[in-house]
User: Which sequence fits this backbone?
């Protein structure tokens, strides 16, 4: 199968050739013809599967072939994203795909001044990428009208709800024209997402890409048990031993990010951090410097790092395990993208055993543990397996396997290949039609 056989027009095919895309990914093969045919979509797809091109290519084609010219202060298509970084990234991809088309694109998000955004919207834009809060601000200040909107894309819908945007989404829904095409992408399908889909979608086509997603299948994963207080020391030790060059590190909290960055910088290591408390410009600068290898270690919270596409990222380290097991899949999806190989290492302390167990259950695999000599934990991490069982009773501490010393001959165990990664809820159940959203209180980020 080629992009041409999916019915894409020549200017798009030329752009894809420039980008080196040869074959459509599974989500693209399913989504492109359906969107071109005008269908609503409910798609289960994670980042790394090529979903952005899956919705953006047919969307660009429809906007080129159909509909009136964009009016002042209007948008013809709206792509909603959960975070500013993701909005920037999606916009960059859309702009690349649109390079040979006479369409305008723009991204708006909070954390930066609204005035330039208002100015830019005066002439109207064909495709607007936005985070929910800023979109509502622009709408309320009459900088944006949505009556010309043909298509709405909800990207990472599950994440938008996780971040407490259900109220904003309900507000946006009221601002939209009734007749429109809606495409919903989500990594997981909770009841809340189904409720959202029931409200927003019209007879949607369900698409599901294989949970053995192309990106993750090339990620080798393992766990290093360690006491909580020794995690920073272990990180630096592993970094030096493995001569890590470019690492994306996930920490649980904003304070955790800052503390680790301070520690690394104090040791003269080229590190920076991104989290929700930092101004957008600082976050973007840190990310750009990391992408261009000017920063070696980027420490991030899940909120800041979701969906980021960093080319050829070799290694992801979970300094802390994520509280939500699904986030583990998203985190490790930052590496091993587009067919490259990658590694994902998790530093796990006894407190995190339930999180480890949840991850193993979700991904249906028992993660290989590799004890690091001199860092064997005093507080043993109880045994876990993919059944979700935690062996609570501590076993008699075993002597650490240090045979071979630092000579590199230690038995490191079998690689766990995340080709076996399979989210616990891979199937899409039928969409329930329900009258209202859950507009509960917004969770703190
Ligand atoms: P996404 O899941 O949309 O974030 O895309 C993940 C990565 O795969 C991005 O770097 C894309 O540029 C790349 N990509 C998407 N579709 C293709 C394709 N058909 N061939 C090669 N690379 C692709």
Assistant:
């Amino acid at each position: 199968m080629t992009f041409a056989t999916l019915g894409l027009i020549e200017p798009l095919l030329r752009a894809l050739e420039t980008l080196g895309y040869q074959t459509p990914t599974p989500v693209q093969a399913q989504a492109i013809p359906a969107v071109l045919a005008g269908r609503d979509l409910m798609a289960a797809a994670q980042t790394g599967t090529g979903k952005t091109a899956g919705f953006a290519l047919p969307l660009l084609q429809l906007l080129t072939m159909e509909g009136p010219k964009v009016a002042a202060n209007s948008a013809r298509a709206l792509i909603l994203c959960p975070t500013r970084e993701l909005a920037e990234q999606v916009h960059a991809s859309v702009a690349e795909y649109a390079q040979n088309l006479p369409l305008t694109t723009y991204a708006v998000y909070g954390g930066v001044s609204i005035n330039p955004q208002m100015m830019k919207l005066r002439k109207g834009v064909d495709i607007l990428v936005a985070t929910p809060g800023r979109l509502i601000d622009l709408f309320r200040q009459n900088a944006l009208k949505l009556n010309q909107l043909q298509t709405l894309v909800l990207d990472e819908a599950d994440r938008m709800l996780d971040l407490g945007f259900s109220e904003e989404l309900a507000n946006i829904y009221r601002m939209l024209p009734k007749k429109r095409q809606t495409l919903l992408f989500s990594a997981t399908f909770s009841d809340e997402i189904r409720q959202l889909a029931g409200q927003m979608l019209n007879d949607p086509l369900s698409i599901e890409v294989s949970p053995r997603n192309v990106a993750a299948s090339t990620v080798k994963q393992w766990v290093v048990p360690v006491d909580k207080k020794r995690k920073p020391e272990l990180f630096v030790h592993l970094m030096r031993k493995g001569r890590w060059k470019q690492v994306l590190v996930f920490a649980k909290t904003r304070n955790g990010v800052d503390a680790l960055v301070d520690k690394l910088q104090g040791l003269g290591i080229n590190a920076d951090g991104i989290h929700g408390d930092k101004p957008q410009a600082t976050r973007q600068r840190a990310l750009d410097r990391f992408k261009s290898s000017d920063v070696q270690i980027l420490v991030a919270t899940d909120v800041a790092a979701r969906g980021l596409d960093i080319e050829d990222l070799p290694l992801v380290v979970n300094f802390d395990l994520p509280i939500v097991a699904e986030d583990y899949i998203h985190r490790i999806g930052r590496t091993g993208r587009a067919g490259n190989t990658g590694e994902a290492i998790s530093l796990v302390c006894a407190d995190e055993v339930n999180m480890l167990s949840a991850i193993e259950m979700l991904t249906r695999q028992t993660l290989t543990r590799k004890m690091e000599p001199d860092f064997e934990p005093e507080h043993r991490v109880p045994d876990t397996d993919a059944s979700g069982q935690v062996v609570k009773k501590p076993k008699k501490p075993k002597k650490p396997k240090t045979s071979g010393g630092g000579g590199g001959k230690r038995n490191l165990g079998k690689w766990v290949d995340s080709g076996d990664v399979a989210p616990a809820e891979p199937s899409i159940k039928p969409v329930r039609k329900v009258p209202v959203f859950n507009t509960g209180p917004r969770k703190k980020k």
The radius of gyration is 23 Å. Residues 21, 23-25, 28, 47-53, 309, 337-338 surround adenosine monophosphate (CB under 6 Å). The CA atoms of residues 16 and 97 lie 7 Å apart. The first strand starts at residue 41 and ends at 44.
